[in-house]
């Protein structure tokens, strides 16, 4: 399985793959917060915001295409 | 400056299998040997809209040297960072799947280097009408890639000097020792427009090569799913994981 971009989130990510349904959502939350921290650390959270801002109009048009 | 490239393709696999393959396409080099340049994959969010029943997923991939080497050579190290580690791109992938209506729309865009080149790939996967389902099912996909170089237009915005951007392009740089001065000099030597066009067309050529490989990778996963089903694929993924742990 592919790695997480942050080493410290890898175990949580791997765990999700083998977890049953109940464990899964708990693990995903833990993984998610681990990932958010890693994204912030690398400044990717800002890039994400930029991309979303850049693309708000596009999204509306694109996702509205199929109704 | 925008360059657009559109292609159509039909997979000879049913829509549910193709959507599964889309999400598994980077999961292991054993499954997809064309994905060895993908360093990591993370899911930022994933939820089903209770109203529409659509699955919304956002993922971030880290890919090795997605920026074509020819472009890297073209640019001064002040822009590219120079080091090999910097030659990786973060790709944001957003997708929406509607199983009931039988379509999946995806969008992938680079997060870094956007000042040099922004590549946005949009795909629309559609299950053909019911009549075709009897024959085993196929899936149509339209891929549209938009290349845009804003080199010299927005690079200063990205560097955090939005107000100076307009002024800097109008007036010649006075401070030649600064980074900005170097970039301006370099750009005006070649002509920003020409460089933008070159970057867009180089990237477009490279992407057309890549699209064939990405399709080939999808096809290998689809074949595996056909042969062994999802359980077989998950087994293989587990084996690959254990093997990589052994190696560590």
UniProtKB/TrEMBL annotation, chain A:
Keywords: Disulfide bond. InterPro entries: MDM35_apoptosis (IPR007918). Pfam families: UPF0203. Belongs to the TRIAP1/MDM35 family. This is Uncharacterized protein. It comes from Lasiosphaeria ovina.
TrEMBL record, chain B:
Residues 1-230 form the PRELI/MSF1 domain. InterPro entries: PRELI/MSF1_dom, Slowmo/Ups. Pfam families: PRELI (PF04707). This is PRELI-like family-domain-containing protein. Residues 162-178 have a biased composition (Low complexity). Signal peptide: none annotated. Residues 158-186 are annotated as: Disordered. GO terms for cellular component: mitochondrial intermembrane space. It comes from Lasiosphaeria ovina.
């Amino acid at each position: 399985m592919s790695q997480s971009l942050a080493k410290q989130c890898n175990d949580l990510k791997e765990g999700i793959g083998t977890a049953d349904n109940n464990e899964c959502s708990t693990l995903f939350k833990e993984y998610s917060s681990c990932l958010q921290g890693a994204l912030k650390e690398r400044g990717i959270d800002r890039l994400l915001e930029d991309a979303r801002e850049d693309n708000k109009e596009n999204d509306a048009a694109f996702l509205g295409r199929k109704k | 400056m925008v360059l657009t490239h559109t292609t159509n393709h039909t997979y000879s696999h049913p829509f549910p299998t193709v959507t599964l393959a889309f999400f598994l396409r980077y999961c292991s080099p054993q499954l997809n040997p064309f994905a060895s340049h993908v360093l990591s994959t993370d899911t930022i969010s994933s939820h089903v809209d209770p109203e529409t029943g659509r699955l919304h997923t956002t993922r971030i991939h880290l890919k090795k040297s997605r920026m074509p080497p020819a472009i890297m050579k073209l640019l001064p190290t002040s822009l590219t960072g120079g080091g090999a580690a910097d030659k990786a791109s973060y790709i944001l992938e957003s997708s929406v799947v509607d199983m009931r209506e039988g379509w999946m729309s995806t969008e992938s865009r680079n997060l870094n280097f956007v000042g040099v080149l922004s590549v946005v790939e949009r795909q629309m996967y559609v299950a053909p009408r019911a009549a075709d389902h009897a024959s085993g099912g196929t899936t149509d996909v339209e891929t549209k890639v938009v290349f845009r170089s804003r080199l010299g237009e927005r690079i200063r915005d990205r560097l955090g000097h939005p107000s100076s951007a307009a002024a800097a392009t109008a007036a010649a740089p006075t401070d030649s020792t600064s980074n900005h001065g170097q970039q301006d000099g370099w750009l005006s030597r070649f002509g920003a427009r020409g460089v933008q066009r070159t970057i867009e067309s180089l990237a477009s050529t490279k992407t057309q090569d890549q699209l064939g490989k990405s399709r080939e990778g999808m096809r290998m996963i689809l074949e595996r799913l056909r042969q062994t089903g999802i359980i077989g694929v998950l087994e293989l993924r587990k084996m690959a994981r254990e093997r990589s742990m052994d190696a560590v």
